[in-house]
Specification:
With 257 residues, this protein is of the alpha+beta class. The chain has 6 helices and 10 strands; from the N terminus they run H-E-E-E-E-E-E-E-E-H-H-H-H-H-E-E. The longest helix is centred in the last third of the chain and has 24 residues. The protein starts with a helix and ends in a 22-residue tail after the last strand.
């Protein structure tokens, strides 16, 4: 599933069509595509994992889900969910969800929740996070109402960098560690963006997809479905502390990949 930084890149690439008029709208998405023809693009925006196309009297929300993709001025062999044609190019989306949003986007979204937005603040993020003391750290970093744009890569990398076990409840983290978590989600999201632009993202992974802990030089624990979110996790049992775990004997055992 593309994470927030990848959607920022899509937004930047699609910006060439800003101000242009849609001349063709096709695809299998269940929406009134005839309504789109003749409308000009006011802006392209992003919120977390949502790619937003703001038109004159309606907006489109594209979510690439787990395996969605897009092509600009190119096409795949498979039919698109949505294809928008302009005078000098086209924008094609595949394997995704497409919905319309009526009214102003500013009324539909709280931009401060987006970890890459200018309006994001650590104070507001901490307040939202502290309201969920029972939530596990691995789930909190995937909750889009807390950290819009944070995905499984960001989760695994951030928790490794701050040395927090993914099964630690948020309420058990010391205040200093909680602040560190919030700050590092923001910091690593922009590092992710830089690495993605350079084409070096995987080369910089310390935990996600790795076999050996670079700090302890021991095998990572690998879980197929950890926490309520049931997503893959890579973590070190030695250097990532499990806060709030009073009895290791009753600790949840990760399912090995």
């Amino acid at each position: 599933m593309p994470e927030g930084p990848s959607i920022v890149i899509l937004r930047e690439q699609a910006a060439v069509f800003t101000g242009q008029t849609i001349e063709r709208a096709q695809g299998s998405a269940k929406l009134d595509k005839t309504r789109l023809v003749g409308q000009s693009v006011r802006s392209f925006r992003s919120w977390g994992k949502h790619f937003l196309i703001e038109l004159e009297d309606v907006s489109l929300r594209v979510h690439l889900l787990l395996f969605g993709s897009y092509r600009i001025n190119q096409r795949k062999e498979s039919p698109p969910r949505l294809s928008l044609g302009f005078a000098d190019g086209e924008l094609n989306f595949y394997g995704c969800s497409v919905q319309t949003i009526e009214g102003l986007l500013d009324a539909a979204y709280d931009w401060s929740v987006d970890v890459m937005a200018d309006g994001w603040t650590p104070r507001a993020a901490l307040k939202r996070l502290r309201a969920h003391p029972q939530m596990l750290a691995c789930d909190a970093l995937l909750d889009q109402t807390l950290f819009a744009g944070s995905g499984n890569i960001i989760k695994n990398e951030v928790l490794f960098r701050i040395r927090v076990h993914p099964l630690s409840p948020i309420g058990a983290l010391p205040p200093r560690k909680l602040r560190e978590l919030v700050a590092d989600v923001r910091r690593y999201s922009f590092e992710f963006l830089q690495y993605k632009r350079e084409g070096t993202l995987k080369a910089h992974w310390l935990a996600h997809g790795r076999d050996i802990c670079p700090r302890c030089n021991i095998p990572f624990s690998k879980a197929k479905a950890l926490g309520r979110s049931k997503r893959r996790a890579f973590f070190c049992q030695r250097c990532q502390k499990r806060y709030g775990d009073g009895d290791d004997a009753h600790a949840e055992k990760p399912v090995q990949v």
